[in-house]
Write a structure and sequence with these properties.
The protein is α/β, with parallel strands linked by helices and 233 residues long. The protein is built from 9 helices and 8 strands. Helix 8 links the parallel strand 7 and strand 8. The protein is globular and about 40 Å long.
Length: 233
């Protein structure tokens, strides 16, 4: 699966806090991405429920893609969706959705909170959020995989679809510790920013964790008009 999304910046996701409650349906490229994931079994009976989004480096628009996929799935499929901020390096979803819940994903992973304690119901129908909480990379690198497995099982019973905003798949990232326990991974590749060697290295390392790579999203795609088309006679 390879799909394209419109040109965006990581810091300016289409979902804006001031307009969350009245937000229209997401752009067509994200709806198309949800449909492609659905064709591979995302949220289907016997298919996969938890998909993570990551990239080979920071700033490739992973949060933007993950947020809009979650919103699109909740809006178009009208089924319970959970959006998880697992990006310990640059957690952004609490600020994006103006959520003040202090606990979150990393707190649940550390056993400080239960699987449902920190879940926040968003104004968008069928969509809930789990913020990053207290992100501690050292703690994440030594977490108990059984705890994450139990948390994911609990969330799978409560939600039909789970979208996880992961940190970049770089050398010391907790992304690899998480990826192998999710049902699938989508690699976000930003035009003009991602380096081929880094993308290949991230792909190989994800494969080494037994992660299921579902495909890639070609992000920040810009369409350039040929000179002859824009030239005026």
């Amino acid at each position: 699966m390879i799909t394209q999304t419109p040109a965006t910046r990581e810091s300016t996701a289409e979902v804006r806090p001031s307009s969350v409650s009245r937000m229209p349906a997401p752009a067509t490229p994200y709806q198309a991405l949800v449909q492609r994931l659905r064709a591979q079994g995302f949220g289907m009976p016997g298919g996969f429920q938890a998909v993570g989004f990551t990239s080979s480096s920071a700033g490739e628009g992973v949060t933007t893609v993950a947020v809009n996929v979650a919103v699109s799935a909740a809006s178009s499929l009208r089924r319970p969706v959970l959006l998880i901020d697992a990006n310990d390096a640059r957690p952004a979803l609490a600020r994006l959705f103006e959520v003040n819940e202090p606990g979150g994903f990393y707190d649940a992973l550390a056993g400080r909170d239960g699987a449902s304690t920190c879940l926040v119901k968003l104004p968008i129908e069928h969509l809930s959020l789990l913020t990053a909480g207290t992100a501690d990379k050292r703690q994440m690198m030594s977490y108990d995989p059984a705890v994450l497995g139990e948390l994911l099982d609990a969330w799978r019973h409560e939600f039909d679809l789970i979208v996880v905003d992961l940190p970049p798949a770089t050398d010391d990232s907790p992304c690899f510790a998480l990826a192998g326990q999710l049902d699938g991974i989508v690699l976000v590749v930003a035009q003009g920013r991602a380096r081929r060697a880094a993308v290949r290295r991230a792909k190989d390392r994800l494969a080494a964790t037994r992660a299921t790579l579902l495909g890639a999203v070609w992000n920040m795609r810009r369409w350039h008009l040929p000179a002859w088309l824009s030239r005026r006679d």
